[in-house]
């Protein structure tokens, strides 16, 4: 091999570059744009490039606006079709009472679909305090235990917790769950006053 | 140092600072003791900023703002650092940017994990469609993914050649290797991504890619030459590391074709030995043979020819683009590739 580079070496390089470029463009799924305008004089090509770029930016803007509007509509439709997938409220349901008393509140359910929903069962998990104290789920009850919801209607179920006599004062946390709403968990905070 | 080289290095330093701050911001949330400092290690050592610089400059040359190019530029920089971590381990390199490599500092398992994490973090900026919009962001992601495939194919080719001690190679094979392993993510992707973003996907990218291949190949040949010419203190890597690692550089391929049969047999045996068995004396001898048989001169001449071809490809790629400081900077990268010392 001579310590000089001839044109054959460079031509070989060009062939390699073209082959790898073909592979790159095939994989990137970015179809090469047609070279329309390549025969124009440079000044015209500059203007053409700028006009194309400005038009593309405008189209992108409208496309994004359309896409966001569509996605918002899709999210709303999804929430209406599958009410269990919308997020539960951030604020926990509050209950207050002393040991030996009954604390109660109402759990509201809203049917945002156009179909009747039958047999929505509710149950309460154990309530736990940071100290390790626990109030069993057996002390909680719902009235009614199972609810029916007409399309676009709301109904309430009363949650009662019979606070055990020996329950230590403090904050107890738990959740209201329903097999009909597997993606949702309604937080409950029971404060046992001293 | 020429005025062009100084100007290019100053511009690159500006881009490196910009990207360094953005990379730091994106990696700031990491707080695991076994990951956080590791993923920040290489980016904090500072690189040349060539890849993000070329990407942003190309975006601006085509009329786009820096803000729009930043996500892709950060992505490329993080990928580059991820590749380096794994590359250093695969090559058993001991120094990177003047300091011990990540696996030397923390051990191979943690270093490999940090490389995996960086490669994943690199894709995060590309998920954001708020700046580029969904259509363009998807095309940018496609380009980056295609580039990663090419780069890993190139790396596999190099590692395979070394494992199997492949020596029947011509300069075209070397160019295939560097085109995939180096050019795709160092020059071709920055140019294509910059033009894609700057023009909002309205210009052909093929001529830019052809310029990128010439520029990147000249860059790699220069890198190979620096490895056997400069001291480790200057280029921040192991002195004569490429020879010790048995890398199939243009100089090595030339040497294999230039020496007599007995010397060639010795050279093939040297390349077939495990890296740790290659003595300092033998490594130095290979370096001397490269000098004696004109292999270094051959590589220099090849880089010169690539630069001339890059110049012609540049004129073609930027023919329809208004002249600006950004276009001038990109053009000045051609002589920079040949003159740089680190």
From TrEMBL, chain A:
<feature type="region of interest" description="Disordered">
    <location>
        <begin position="24"/>
        <end position="43"/>
    </location>
</feature>
<protein>
    <submittedName>
        <fullName>Uncharacterized protein</fullName>
    </submittedName>
</protein>
Automatic annotation (TrEMBL), chain B:
<keyword id="KW-0808">Transferase</keyword>
<dbReference type="GO" id="GO:0004659">
    <property type="term" value="F:prenyltransferase activity"/>
</dbReference>
<dbReference type="GO" id="GO:0046872">
    <property type="term" value="F:metal ion binding"/>
</dbReference>
<protein>
    <submittedName>
        <fullName>Polyprenyl synthetase family protein</fullName>
    </submittedName>
</protein>
<keyword id="KW-0479">Metal-binding</keyword>
<dbReference type="InterPro" id="IPR033749">
    <property type="entry name" value="Polyprenyl_synt_CS"/>
</dbReference>
<dbReference type="GO" id="GO:0008299">
    <property type="term" value="P:isoprenoid biosynthetic process"/>
</dbReference>
<comment type="similarity">
    <text>Belongs to the FPP/GGPP synthase family.</text>
</comment>
<dbReference type="InterPro" id="IPR000092">
    <property type="entry name" value="Polyprenyl_synt"/>
</dbReference>
<dbReference type="Pfam" id="PF00348">
    <property type="entry name" value="polyprenyl_synt"/>
</dbReference>
<dbReference type="InterPro" id="IPR008949">
    <property type="entry name" value="Isoprenoid_synthase_dom_sf"/>
</dbReference>
<keyword id="KW-0460">Magnesium</keyword>
């Amino acid at each position: 091999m001579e310590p000089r580079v001839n044109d054959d070496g460079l031509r070989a390089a060009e062939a390699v570059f073209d082959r790898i470029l073909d592979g790159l463009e095939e994989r990137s799924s970015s179809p090469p744009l047609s070279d329309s305008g390549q025969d124009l004089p440079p000044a015209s090509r500059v203007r053409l490039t700028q006009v194309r770029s400005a038009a593309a930016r405008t189209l992108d803007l409208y496309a994004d606006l359309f896409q966001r509007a569509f996605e918002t509509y899709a999210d709303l439709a999804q929430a209406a079709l599958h009410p269990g997938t919308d997020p539960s409220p951030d604020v926990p349901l509050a209950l207050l009472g002393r040991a030996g008393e009954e604390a109660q509140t109402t759990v509201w359910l809203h049917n945002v679909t156009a179909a009747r929903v039958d047999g929505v069962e509710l149950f309460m998990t154990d309530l736990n305090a940071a100290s390790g104290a626990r109030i069993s789920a057996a002390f909680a009850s719902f009235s009614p235990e199972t609810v029916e919801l007409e399309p676009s209607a709301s109904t309430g179920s009363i949650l009662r917790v019979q606070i055990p006599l020996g329950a230590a004062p403090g904050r107890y946390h738990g959740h209201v769950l329903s097999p009909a709403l597997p993606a949702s968990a309604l937080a409950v905070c029971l404060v046992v006053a001293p | 140092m020429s005025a062009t080289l100084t100007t290019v290095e100053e511009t690159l330093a500006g881009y490196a600072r910009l990207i360094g701050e953005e990379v730091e911001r994106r990696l700031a949330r990491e707080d695991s003791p076994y990951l956080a400092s590791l993923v920040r290690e290489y980016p904090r050592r500072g690189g040349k900023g060539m890849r993000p610089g070329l990407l942003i400059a190309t975006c601006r040359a085509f009329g786009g703002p820096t803000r729009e190019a930043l996500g892709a530029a950060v992505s490329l920089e993080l990928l580059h650092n991820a590749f380096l971590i794994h590359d250093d381990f695969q090559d058993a390199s001991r120094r990177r940017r003047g300091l011990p490599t990540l696996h030397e500092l923390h051990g191979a398992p943690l270093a490999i994990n940090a490389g995996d994490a960086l490669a994943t973090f690199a894709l995060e900026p590309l998920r954001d469609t708020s700046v580029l919009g969904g259509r363009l962001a998807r095309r940018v992601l496609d380009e980056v993914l295609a580039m990663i495939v090419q780069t890993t194919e190139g790396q596999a080719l190099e590692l395979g050649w070394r494992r199997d001690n492949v020596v029947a190679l011509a300069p075209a094979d070397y160019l295939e290797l560097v085109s995939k392993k180096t050019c795709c993510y160092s020059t071709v992707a920055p140019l294509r991504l910059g033009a894609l973003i700057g023009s909002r996907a309205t210009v052909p990218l093929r001529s830019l890619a052809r310029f990128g291949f010439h520029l990147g190949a000249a860059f790699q040949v220069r890198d190979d030459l620096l490895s056997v010419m400069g001291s480790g203190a200057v280029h921040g890597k192991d002195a004569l590391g490429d020879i010790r690692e048995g890398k199939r550089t243009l100089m090595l391929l030339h040497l294999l074709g230039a020496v007599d049969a007995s010397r060639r047999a010795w050279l093939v045996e040297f390349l077939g030995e495990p890296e740790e068995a290659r003595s300092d004396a033998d490594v130095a001898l290979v370096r001397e043979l490269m000098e004696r048989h004109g292999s270094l001169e051959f590589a220099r001449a090849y880089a010169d020819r690539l630069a001339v071809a890059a110049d012609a490809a540049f004129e073609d790629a930027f023919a329809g683009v208004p002249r600006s400081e950004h276009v001038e900077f990109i053009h000045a990268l051609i002589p920079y590739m040949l003159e740089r010392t680190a």
